Amino acid sequence: VKVYLNGAFVAAAEARIDASDRGLSLGDGLFETIAVAGGRVKRIPAHLARLKAGAQILDLRLPWLEAELAAALEGTAAVNRLSAGALRLTVTRGPGPRGLSPPAKCYPTLLIAPHSGAPPAGPVRAVIATETRRNERSPLARIKCLSSLDNLLARREAIKRGADDALLLNTQGRVAEATASNLFLVLEGELVTPPVADGALPGVVRAAIVAALGAREQSIAPEDLSRASQAFLTNALGVRVLGAIDGRPLGEGKPGPAFAKAAAVWAR
Amino acid sequence: VKVYLNGAFVAAAEARIDASDRGLSLGDGLFETIAVAGGRVKRIPAHLARLKAGAQILDLRLPWLEAELAAALEGTAAVNRLSAGALRLTVTRGPGPRGLSPPAKCYPTLLIAPHSGAPPAGPVRAVIATETRRNERSPLARIKCLSSLDNLLARREAIKRGADDALLLNTQGRVAEATASNLFLVLEGELVTPPVADGALPGVVRAAIVAALGAREQSIAPEDLSRASQAFLTNALGVRVLGAIDGRPLGEGKPGPAFAKAAAVWAR
Question: Which residues of A touch B132 (CB under 8 A)?
Fold first, then answer.
């Protein structure tokens, strides 16, 4: 396995980062998880557009042309003969001295790692996370940044409670998203998804489904979940039925027509 | 300059971390900033106790004895002949595969880096951060974790607005702390500090001052700030007068008796 690191392909087992990298010391960076299917790296422009938007929010000047990043992604898939799986692209602000303030001149780190194998499929049993909340009052809720510990805490709570994943509530008690995917519900026959203002990450596949199926952004209260006739979770790697929440089956519990349409959008 | 990395001293310029380290990919780790003064590493037991408490919240099993960590800290100061400055101790969950879930067996990373020179002194001009909020609903508000981007955003806002630092409000609008220090105020003759439940990091020096001077934990509204006769910020590296907020001088604007007492507690 080879990863792309700052302009060169190196064996994954030998890939090393400067110990003063701000990605490590402060979570000061961004990432994208990008699907590879049929040997094709999917939705590169949408992923790079989100990366760029995140970099603007962090004032992180990316020194690479979009075409360079796209070539690095394609190259990582090709060098590893990756036909199905994912690429994780990580960008950090690069090395820096101690403290929050970045150095005057930054040399960002770029890492692209391949991951083969299909992502988990089948219905998700979720819980509503009780230990932590998603902070919709922070700009970080709208970008895919390295500071991911809240999602990690929620995922861990789910596993401890015998589930697969957790839904995160925001600080006002509205449902924001799952730990690594967006939520869609069919409520009274209409496809809805939590708004970005409520703490939903602006997912690349979420946007594609909203555009293709005309889903509406609507705040979701935890009580709304039991009224849904269908529910599913989406991220770059696929679409999964949300089968149960806090141990209670949700909706019809099996893939419905909205799920099938969303899965078809993902597969494009 | 030499850093301590996983059991050995290595030249800082050559210190490297595995590119799959979860500290880098997910901010999955903890840190401590520890003062060195007069050649002495200060408050080691308190820092290691907080590290341990944070590790428990993250389910991060630390494979080192407290005495080993203390020796590594003392050793890093000694090897670098550090008489005044700081040590930054960073612990991560170590390398792992893609995704939030940690591997079955983790090999945590331990890095201790020395930083010489006195920390900034003199009065702090602060603003109240408007771009982000501290999430007091997350357990992360109570630990010193690597996912530090909200504090970084607030600090950047302060610099852009011509100030030195920012005070963060929590999601309910109460004052939680500054970007890398705790807040103390003298209100109606009484020394008060925001409670941990409001999102104040349980600072090591904060705890020492609360214990020594009998400061009271009390929720602080932004309006309360203008009523303070004295205000100061504390962290492991020292105590500084808070001289102005949003451009308005605060209190008497010069070191008062409470500040002097707090500075003496720090100097112990």
Answer: 137-140
